[in-house]
From TrEMBL:
Its main location: membrane. This is Mal, T cell differentiation protein like. It holds the Pfam family MARVEL. Keywords: Membrane, Transmembrane, Transmembrane helix. It is found in: Membrane. It is a multi-pass membrane protein. The chain crosses the membrane at residues 29-53, 59-82, 94-114, 126-147. The gene is MALL.
Length: 155
């Protein structure tokens, strides 16, 4: 058991997963922090409009908050090396970022729709500007998740 896992062939056949501060310099793991920050901006900006279109923006809030929290847990896991260099971890990372990219794309489109609605719906131009900014960050975050998911395959 212990001898088989310590063999050099097992160690060289799989690329090592980064742990600690080095993740901030390693692609695709370097995308995690910007994903969290941009995702938090989406959530903050939509919250600032007091979720004026609950049907559309409820989903946006859910996606941005959930993925923010899960990405934060992922970042903490990488920082402390909880993955123990397991290959399954790479698959999990890829699946999570791929799925989140799809969910975020739907949220970004709904947020863009809410932005278009808010242009004529409210007397205050502030809500429209907040919605514009939220849409912008939603698409940026979507792009980051897509980049992360795909760059896992090109390592």
């Amino acid at each position: 058991g212990a001898m088989a896992s310590a063999s050099p062939t097992a160690a060289t056949s799989q690329p090592s997963l980064p742990s600690g501060p080095v993740i901030f310099k390693t692609i695709p793991y370097a995308f995690i922090l910007p994903e969290i920050i941009c995702g938090a901006w989406v959530w903050i900006l939509v919250a600032a409009t007091s979720v004026s279109f609950p049907l559309l923006q409820g989903w946006v809030m859910y996606v941005s908050l959930t993925s923010c929290l899960i990405s934060l847990l992922l970042l903490i896991s990488y920082l402390f090396g909880f993955h123990r260099n397991s290959n399954n971890w790479k698959v999990l990372d890829s699946l999570y970022h791929g799925a989140t990219a799809i969910l975020y794309m739907s949220a970004a489109v709904l947020q863009a729709n809410a932005t278009i609605n808010s242009e004529f719906h409210f007397s205050s131009p502030l809500y429209y500007q907040l919605n514009c900014a939220a849409s912008f960050f939603a698409f940026i975050t979507t792009f980051l998740y897509i980049l992360h998911a795909f760059s896992n395959y090109y390592q």
